[in-house]
Design brief:
Blueprint lengths: L2 H22 L4 H122 L1
């Protein structure tokens, strides 16, 4: 479809619509024009108001962005200083906790060694008891055998 054909159809449609509106309106032509001028004026005022509000919004966003850019470095510096101060204040407690943890670990290792030694001793004693019991059982059996032989 060519552009000239499209615009010709559009123009014809607009003219037909305008004529139909003019002939079907209950107002006279003069009243209609006055009404249209008033409506047009109202729309222009509303459009100007919307444009003004958009401009105000753009300006507010721009100001907010500028303030944020100015305040962000200050805020970051304050945060860094606060973090450094906190680290300095907690450093002694951190060192103390690390020493306590090390002492606990050493105590646990010593306790594990002691438990291991006691377990070895207990195992050796248990083994000795078993050997003694086995030896005693063997003596009892030989006594029974000698009793049987003597009878």
């Amino acid at each position: 479809m060519k552009a000239s054909t499209f615009f010709l159809g559009l123009t014809t449609g607009l003219a037909a619509g305008a004529a139909a509106t003019l002939f079907s309106t209950p107002q006279s032509g003069k009243e209609l024009r006055t009404s249209m001028k008033t409506a047009s004026s109202d729309w222009k005022e509303k459009l100007a108001d919307v444009k003004e509000k958009i401009d105000n919004l753009k300006e507010s966003v721009s100001e907010l962005t500028t303030e944020a850019k100015e305040q962000l470095p200050e805020t970051m510096d304050e945060l860094k200083k606060s973090l450094e101060k906190w680290q300095e204040e907690t450093a002694p407690a951190k060192e103390h906790l690390q020493l306590e943890i090390l002492a606990i670990q050493n105590s646990m290792e010593a306790l594990e060694k002691a438990i291991s030694k006691n377990k070895k001793k207990d195992d050796e004693q248990e083994q000795e008891k078993k050997s003694y019991i086995e030896y005693s059982d063997t003596d009892d059996d030989s006594d029974k055998d000698s009793d049987k032989e003597s009878k």
